[in-house]
Known about the structure:
Elements: H1 5-8, H2 11-15, H3 17-27, H4 32-36, E1 42-45, E2 60-75, E3 85-93, E4 98-104, H5 109-114, E5 120-130, E6 133-137, E7 140-143, H6 149-157, E8 159-162, H7 171-181, H8 194-199, H9 205-213, H10 218-249, H11 262-269, H12 276-289, E9 296-301, H13 307-320, E10 324-328, H14 332-346, E11 363-367, H15 373-385, E12 388-393, E13 407-413, H16 420-427, E14 435-440, H17 446-452, E15 457-461, E16 471-477, H18 482-497, E17 501-505, H19 516-519, H20 537-546, E18 554-557, H21 563-575, E19 580-583, E20 596-601, H22 609-616, E21 626-632, H23 639-649, H24 653-664, H25 666-673, H26 690-706, H27 714-723, H28 726-734
Parallel strand pairs: 4-6, 9-14, 9-15, 10-12, 10-13, 11-12, 13-14, 16-21, 17-19, 17-20, 18-19, 20-21
Antiparallel strand pairs: 1-8, 2-3, 2-5, 3-4, 5-6, 5-7
Amino acid sequence: MDLVPALEEPLKKVLGPATAKVMAEHLGLHTVGDLLHHYPRRYEERGQLTHLADLPMDEHVTVVAMVADARLHTFASAKAPRGKGQRLEVTITDGSGRLQLVFFGNGVHKPHKELLPGTRAMFSGKVSVFNRRLQLAHPAYELLRGDSEETVESWAGALIPIYPATAKLESWKIGKAIQTVLPGAQEAVDPLPPALREGRGLVTLPEALLKIHRPHTKADIEDARSRLKWDEAFVLQVALARRRHADAQLPAVARRPSPDGLLTAFDDRLPFTLTEGQQKVSKEIFDDLATEHPMHRLLQGEVGSGKTMVALRAMLATVDAGGQAAMLAPTEVLAQQHHRSVVEMMGELAEGGMLGGAEHATKVVLLTGSMGTAARRQAMLDLATGEAGIVIGTHALIEDKVQFHDLGLVVVDEQHRFGVEQRDALRGKGKQPPHLLVMTATPIPRTVAMTVFGDLETSVLDQLPAGRSPIASHVVPAADKPHFLARAWERVREEVEKGHQAYVVCPRIGDEEDDPKKSDKKKSPQDEAEKRPPLAVLDVAAQLAKGPLQGLRVEVLHGRMHPDDKDAVMRRFAAGDTDVLVATTVIEVGVNVPNATAMVIMDADRFGVSQLHQLRGRVGRGSAPGLCLLVTEMPEASAARQRLNAVASTLDGFELSRIDLEQRREGDVLGQAQSGARTSLRVLAVIEDEEVIAEARDEAAQVVAADPELTAFPGLRVALDALLDEEREQYLEKG
């Protein structure tokens, strides 16, 4: 179908090359359609007509008055040192009082010509005080010719759209450009099916575009926004529904565990019973594995809710059914850790082909980039022959050389660190597409899950296994109350004296070259606490070992260490040979040392909300209660402190992820999760518009089920093409 010509018209043809260039470079707007979808951020009211006698301070007002006097002054200033500065002062009166208007610089020429004594006009601006007199600086004005009361009323009451602008292009210039292209809105093709639009009482798309750019009343803005929100939610959900529909058509091998195979043997060895949540989620996964199209499931679980156990049982079920399972971890430390804990949980069941291995046993291999050549070759051989039923590894698993005998299930840990391309490459290793289970410990609000991972079904584990201890969290204001910090180190010593261990987390490593360019930047007073570089692992570890933690066994762990050294440090810490581990966020995900009970996070304000929540989940993993201390130098009233207070006040990751999202705006969240694709949401707010998103998802599923190719909805297809530009098309393809 031909795309709508009017909206596809390049801006340079309509607005001229200079303006079009700025719009393309700074705002990413290329066509008339792009510009029409550049919505106002907010609206200013010119203010109802006010008499000069009762002007309020600091408010936008509109006055109708006559020019009594106009004078042009020249003056010297930093910008115009030789007395070339110009200031136009205009006095106006409406019979009830007088008011001074002032214009500066190049802005004086037009009013100097137009605002002659005796001219009547409407003036609009913000009232301020200068030299004890009220004035309007650079007011907008419109000359009144004749005396039409109607013009006066409508001009004063108008809502002025304020657009997201750039230094190169002010909001009012964007507004002017939009007025030029607005007639083209009549040709906008409506993506919403008529039945849906009428059923929900939404205005048409041309009407919505008109009302959002040129509203007469606040109700117009509401009508337009609720319509445009539906467009965004619905088109995105249709794209995702089509993705799910296409996946459902793919063939996959159904994997049903044998009744008395590996899974049963594993369950019989478990020293505890699974939580209700684990059983429910496992059933959802097993039902998916038993179908002949690939499972696509997102498993969300709080830190420590037992996701790994659920994933391991799914892997064992796959091995039972004759397939292989691969688990992908984002870092080597994590892959090694997962491998260790899986082998421990399975015991002799992980010793397939070895003496002492159980009857149903399989081999569990580790594959990472830094392994020795011989070990690596053996692991790859075990995968190719099918000897190894389970492999745990990093991106090394994706390399072309790695071949599987029969890959049946892929488990991806910590999805948000894992690119779509990588999931895709691993998927291609099966004879038919393998089943996919994506795990994340970052709780994602339901709507974000529906928006970002809309092509995945979602399971949530929200109860902690028995025996988990609560974690107490406190903010330590190091600048206001230094003695609190001293007390924090005493608490660490107390925990170690009880036989426990502690983490100290810092934002950076400390062996970086200082970048002179960065240090030259001028700082504003708000940045006082930001003046110094973030605390570093190497410095803090040295200070603690000499000072407050003298005599304790302190070690460091960070991402730039050699993988063997990292593993050795983790092993010593896990074995209890180290008292305090000073680390970067390499420990954020998946590190499991039940004996570690305390964590001190230095410069906690430099971390995001969900990151702090992740880090905190490393303590309190055993029977002793956990303690997390958030150290910061930020002042009490700062936004950073409020963020930390929120983290300290709740252990509910879903609640925190909402706070996080409200503070960061969804763009970041969506942008990150969509492999860097720029967020397409303009009026839809993921948190506030939960209902719209949920309803749009249902509507989209119905439309796609009835007509997967959307033959009956040409307008919807046009909108989808626009949404799925190259980058997005790939993103959804790879899902």
